[in-house]
Amino acid sequence: MTRCHPKATFDAIALIEEKIIGSARLRLVKKGVGGIAYVAVLPEFSRQGIGTQLMKFLLNLAQEKGLHTVRLRSRVTAQNFYQKLGFSPTIEPFIHIGIPHVDMQLEFY
Ligand SMILES: CC(C)(COP(=O)(O)OP(=O)(O)OC[C@H]1O[C@@H](n2cnc3c(N)ncnc32)[C@H](O)[C@@H]1OP(=O)(O)O)[C@@H](O)C(=O)NCCC(=O)NCCS
Predict the structure, then answer these.
(1) Strands 88-89 and 99-107
(2) What is the mean pLDDT of residues 41-46?
(3) Residue 61 burial class via C-beta count within 10 angstroms: exposed 0-12, middle 13-18, buried 19 and up
(4) Which residues pair with 23 in a beta bridge?
(5) Mean pLDDT of the chain
(6) pTM of the full predicted structure?
(7) CATH number for the domain formed by residue range(s) 6-107
(8) By CB atoms within 10 Å of each CB, which of 59, 63, 80, 107 scores lowest?
(9) Which atom of ligand 1 is least distant from the CA of 55?
(10) Distance from the CA of 57 to the center of ligand 1, in angstroms?
(11) How confident is the model at residue 109 (pLDDT cuts 50, 70, 90)?
(12) What is the pLDDT of residue 80?
């Protein structure tokens, strides 16, 4: 069950012929700060720029909403993907639910 206020959560989806092939979620965490999670693209559509488009859509939205910082928790395998979008790691990698992760952050100004 989602406990976020509905107006504080924004989902971006990528569609091909009404089939969802990718998604990502922006959540307003506190004043000026958002979090992105649930970023995924179907494997058969990977490396075609779809994840980047989803992220850019949400990052533009974050700026429109007046956020100055966006945070996320990335699998280490996706760290390069987020770095290309301007995110930087904030701590050393750690194990979360059995998988190596790293916390990352992007500041707009
Ligand atoms: C990570 C993920 C969302 C990327 O989506 P995508 O649509 O394939 O990403 P893009 O095509 O926009 O990739 C842009 C760039 O990010 C980098 N990148 C993307 N996936 C990568 C990977 N698996 N390993 C290394 N670099 C990667 C590449 O530099 C890529 O550019 P290139 O293809 O020109 O080399 C997708 O692979 C995925 O759903 N993975 C499984 C779930 C996951 O890891 N989610 C995020 C972590 S919590």
Answers:
(1) antiparallel
(2) 97
(3) middle
(4) 13, 40
(5) 93
(6) 0.93
(7) 3.40.630.30
(8) 80
(9) 12
(10) 16
(11) confident
(12) 97
